[in-house]
Amino acid sequence: MSAAPASPRVVSQLKPGDRTVVIGGGPAGLTAAYLLSKKGYAVTVLEADDIVGGISRTAQYKGYRFDIGGHRFFTKIKPVEDLWYEILGEDFISVPRLSRIHYDGKFFDYPLKAMNALRGLGLWNAITIVLSYLKSHWWPNPVEENFEQWVTNRFGAKLYNIFFKTYTEKVWGIPCTEIRAEWAAQRIQGLSLAKAILSAAAINKRSTKIKTLINEFQYPRLGPGQMWETCVDRIRGMGNQVLLKHYVTAVETVNGKVVAVRAKTAEGEVRFPCEHAINTSSIRSLVRALDPQVPEPVKVAGRGPSSTGTSWWWP
Questions:
Q1: CA distance 24 to 232
Q2: Of 35, 59, 218, 240, which residue is 20 to 30 A from 192 by alpha carbon distance?
């Protein structure tokens, strides 16, 4: 006789007077805090670093501003675009796109242009790239679980190793075999080698439907970090807190409900009682912080390769 399925846990809805702690001061965490603040809820953002924005930050040194990667702003979702303009206003400007790939001592146009790529790679490399692409097209990898498999099936192993592998691993800091295929599908949406070549040809204008091939995009005047620096000012202006150098050490739960979040600071550990928590750090960090601790199988799953880069609402 099989056991009856467990009843789903009732999720607590936000009520007036409820307090929410947001773990992480990157784009996801600050956006959540901003929207909750607009609705009048009490929010505290805890960021371990001394700067907000996550990898979309703009570092400052001796009066100069440096973007940690070119985080362009482009979306087809109007409410998202409206939110960006709401936060930055006139400082959210349109800029032309000019991207280059540095490979083997040469610069290549990106998106790829046929003649530019041919001159830089040479005839033999170009032929091997096409042959590699045809091989992947006719005999694709039957499994598409990670970034390497997904990109190789659409561009061929040769082009993947030249342009995609090293760049992606440098930016994200983890092997391509540990990045999920779903992430690749979102980041390189609608693009294949055939479409890139057609888009580069004189008879075909660059696509405005494939987001990887756009000519122009929106960008904060002072770099992507300005979006999140301004967002912090807005959140604080509505009476809520964004606290830096607060490293979350524990998420306290009672009967499956969050009751407080503890954070390590220069002055010692601080406890923040709350009715809700939003986690935007990695799953492995969240699992490690849960108090009381979770069973060992959950810990093992939390340490897995797919446990990074997500957000969780914990009522």
A1: 12
A2: 218
pTM of the model: 0.70
| Domain boundaries of the chain, sorted by first residue | 98-214
Q: How far apart, in whole angstroms, are the C-alpha atoms of residue 140 and residue 4? A: 43
pLDDT in tens, 126-178: 889 889 989 998 999 998 899 999 989 988 999 889 878 887 888 778 899 99
Length of the chain (residues): 315
* Pairwise CA distance, residues 146 & 169, whole Å: 13
Question: Omega into 305 within 30° of 0, i.e. cis?
Answer: no
What are the backbone angles phi and psi of residue 199, rounded to the nearest 5°? Answer: -65, -30
Find out whether 12 and 20 touch, Cβ atoms under 8 Å.
no
Provide the strand spans (E) within the chain: 19-23, 42-46, 58-61, 64-67, 92-96, 99-103, 106-110, 216-220, 241-243, 247-254, 257-265, 268-273, 276-279, 290-291, 312-314
Question: How far apart (Å, rounded) are the C-alpha atoms in residues 284 and 288?
Answer: 6
- Enclosing H/E stretch for 86: helix 78-88
The amino acid present at 129, given as its one-letter code, is: I
Beta-bridge partners for 103: 106
Taking the C-alpha atoms of residue 114 and residue 6, their distance in angstroms, rounded to an integer, is 58
**Per-residue pLDDT tens digits for 97-118:** 777 778 788 887 766 666 777 7
What's the rounded Cα separation, in Å, for the pair 140 and 223?
Answer: 40
